[in-house]
Structure formats: structure tokens, C-alpha cells
UniProtKB/TrEMBL annotation:
This is Phosphotransferase enzyme family protein. InterPro entries: Aminoglycoside_PTrfase (IPR002575), Kinase-like_dom_sf (IPR011009). The keyword Transmembrane helix does not apply. Pfam families: APH. Signal peptide: none annotated. The keyword Manganese does not apply. The lineage of its organism: Bacteria, Pseudomonadati, Pseudomonadota, Gammaproteobacteria, Oceanospirillales. GO terms for molecular function: transferase activity. Gene3D superfamilies: 3.90.1200.10. Keywords: Transferase.
Length: 373
């Protein structure tokens, strides 16, 4: 079940919604307030995520640039978009290097002061609810992205993947330069790509889909050439696809999807029998950067690359679009469109408990069976 969403953070507060009775707000790691979720949210009610819509919250805050806001349920589960980095517009996303030494949330970035001289930085977030990457602006050097939190066992694998697959195939992605040792941790240094992510485009982001599909096609060609070479083990349920499928299987066998149990078990078998192609593995819209001035793009965060069923990458990228639109935009062979339709169904039912009984859900199930022939 969804824990809720942070909708907006500004200098004087945070608003969002959660089905929990209250949410806990913290700023820079320190508790700020427990806020009841009792404001009426008609949009959440209309989406079928709340019976009466009384799930909204509003917490008053006093924020300055660089503050990190976290919101969790009363049971400690983070809401979507948490953590949230607040930046005043005039900062243009950059913070002075001196702030890293004084700010407890940026202690990892402060450690870069030795191996990398820099004047300012731009923190980024990941799913670990901590700062896992930063863009650093060094004197006389083009900006670099420094990634933290990469598991030690993955460092060499990512290095090989960039050197043996992405660079030779000329996949549009930032160049990986080298790694640095910070105590027992490893960080990786990438070239900085001056673009914004597709999720920030709003209307019209679909115009970039053909360019993304060109990159995926080039990746698949490289994958066919390298299929016989030793590859990386995907790491089981840590991979996005496997987490999705295990959750679906649990729903089907645990009685939480009685009305669609047979379809879900059938769909899981069908999807796992699809042709496997070399894939990004986590291609959501935050992982596609676009430079509108030059018209170029870059795919980032290749941690979960692997040979996955055809259609998975595109379904993940177009998550949120109606199923028929996702299939139409993805195009390709019948099996590819089946993969897009099937994974779109699994992703949508994960977000909306009522999706299975909706008209769209029923139509998408019929379409999956049609494509399966």
C-alpha cells in the first residue's frame, strides 16, 4: 500500500498526503513535528486511494537553502519524494563547499575536500534516504558527478560495464572516469551532463521517447554480441524487475488478489518466457537527462543493468501513461509490445489497489491475452 506523497516543499512548509493517521516531519535529521493527516484531498479520493479523502497534511517550517526535509508515516515508512532537498531559486541548485563541513547531512561530501578540490556542490538523492551523489564544481575543471553509496562488490562490475559495453557501443551516458577510496567506502566520478530529467518536463516529455529507444536498440545490439561473455549476477530481488514480480507473486498466492489470481500467475509465466535483451534495468524518467539547448540526452544510473525481458525498460520509462498509450509509443514486435503491456499492468496495480477492477485494468488484461496469441 502507498505510504503517501510529498507534493511540495517551500521555505515555509511542506504539504502532501498519507493514509496514515499522522506523519512525522524532520529537517536535517532532527525531528520537527508530528502532523495529522486530516485535510480533505479530493484528488486522492477521486483516484480511489482514500474513501473520504481526509488524508492531507500541511506542516509549517522555516527552511533555508540546503535543508533536507524527510516525511515518514507514524510507522517510519518514507513517503514518495522523501527526502526532499529545499533550494531557494537564487542558488540555481548549488551550495557553497563550506556548507558541507557544517551540515550533518552532507558529511559524506565534506570528505571529498581532500581528494577533490571544489568550490561548490549540488547534492542529489537516491532510494537510500541519504545523499548518494553530488555534482562538484572544481576550479578550472568541468563539473563532475561523484556517486556515493555504490556497494563495494558493484564497483568493479560497473567499471567493466562502462568500459566494455557502454563506451564501445557509444551509448549516450556520462563517461565514468575513476573511483576514489574514502575510508572503507568507494565513490565513482562521472562527467557531468548539463540537462534536466524527463520527470521535470511536464507535458511533452514523450517527444524524447524515440531518442531513448534508439539508445536502447544500440544497447541490445551490443548485448547480442556480448551475450556469451561472463556477466554480472543480477542480485535477486534487489533488481527492480524481481522486486516487482516477487510482490505480484506474493499477492497472488497470499489471497490479496483473489479476483485476478489466475491472470497474475499466467502473466508472470508469460513475461519470464519473453526474449531477454540487455537492459538498463531502472529506466524511470529521473534517469533520463535532456539538454534542450543541444538536443542531446543521457541515460544515467546503470547499477541494475542486466538481461531482462523485452519491454521492461519501456514499461518502466512510461509508467503512469495509460496502457494503450504505452504500447502505441513503444511499438516494436508483438513480443516487445506484450512485455510493455504486461509490465505496465504490474506497475499500475502496484500503485493503485483498485486498478484490477477498473475499466483500464480489465482492458489491459484483455490486451495482454491478445498479444500472447
Amino acid at each position: 500500500m502507498l505510504s503517501g506523497f510529498i507534493d511540495r516543499v517551500w521555505d515555509a512548509g511542506v504539504v502532501g498526503w498519507s493514509p496514515a493517521p499522522e506523519v512525522r516531519v524532520s529537517v536535517n535529521g532532527s525531528p520537527s513535528a508530528n502532523v495529522p493527516c486530516s485535510n480533505t484531498r479530493l484528488d486522492v479520493q477521486a483516484a480511489g486511494l482514500s474513501d473520504d479523502g481526509r488524508v492531507g497534511f500541511h506542516a509549517a517550517l522555516q527552511l533555508t537553502s540546503g535543508d533536507i526535509v524527510r516525511v515518514t508515516t507514524d510507522r517510519g515508512k518514507p513517503l514518495r519524494h522523501s527526502p526532499w532537498l529545499y533550494m531557494a531559486p537564487e542558488t540555481q541548485g548549488w551550495l557553497p563547499a563550506s556548507l558541507a563541513a557544517d551540515h550533518p547531512e552532507y558529511s559524506a561530501i565534506a570528505e571529498l575536500a581532500g581528494p577533490l578540490a571544489f568550490e561548490r556542490f549540488r547534492p542529489l538523492f537516491g532510494k537510500l534516504e541519504q545523499v548518494v551523489a553530488a555534482v562538484v564544481d572544481a576550479p578550472g575543471v568541468s563539473p563532475k558527478v561523484v556517486r556515493f553509496g555504490v556497494p563495494f562488490r558493484e564497483v568493479a562490475s560497473l567499471q567493466r560495464f562502462h568500459g566494455q559495453v557502454l563506451q564501445p557501443a557509444q551509448i549516450a551516458c556520462p563517461a565514468l572516469y575513476h573511483e576514489l577510496a574514502l575510508g572503507t567506502r568507494r565513490v565513482q566520478v562521472f562527467d557531468y551532463f548539463p540537462g534536466i530529467s524527463l520527470d521535470r518536463f511536464g507535458l511533452g516529455w514523450e517527444a524524447w521517447l524515440p531518442a531513448v529507444m534508439d539508445e536502447l536498440a544500440r544497447l541490445q545490439v551490443a548485448g547480442q554480441r556480448l551475450r556469451g561473455a561472463p556477466g554480472r549476477r543480477l542480485g535477486g530481488i534487489r533488481a527492480v524487475m524481481y522486486r516487482l514480480q516477487w510482490r505480484t507473486l506474493g499477492d497472488a498466492l497470499g489471497g490479496r488478489a483473489a479476483g485476478e489470481r489466475g491472470f497474475l500467475l499466467w502473466l508472470l509465466v508469460v513475461l519470464n518466457r519473453l526474449p531477454r535483451v540487455l537492459s538498463h534495468g531502472d529506466l524511470h524518467r529521473k534517469n533520463v537527462l535532456v539538454d534542450r539547448e543541444s538536443g542531446t540526452l543521457a541515460l544515467i544510473d546503470w547499477d541494475r543493468w542486466g538481461y531482462l525481458p523485452t519491454g521492461f525498460d519501456m514499461a518502466r520509462l512510461m509508467h503512469g501513461l495509460p496502457g494503450e498509450d504505452a504500447e502505441r509509443l513503444a511499438g516494436g514486435s508483438r513480443l516487445h509490445r506484450l512485455g510493455v503491456a504486461g509490465f505496465t499492468y504490474l506497475l499500475k496495480r502496484q500503485d493503485s489497489p483498485g486498478f484490477a477492477v477498473s475499466a483500464e485494468g480489465q482492458a489491459l488484461r484483455r490486451r495482454c491475452r491478445e498479444l500472447a496469441g
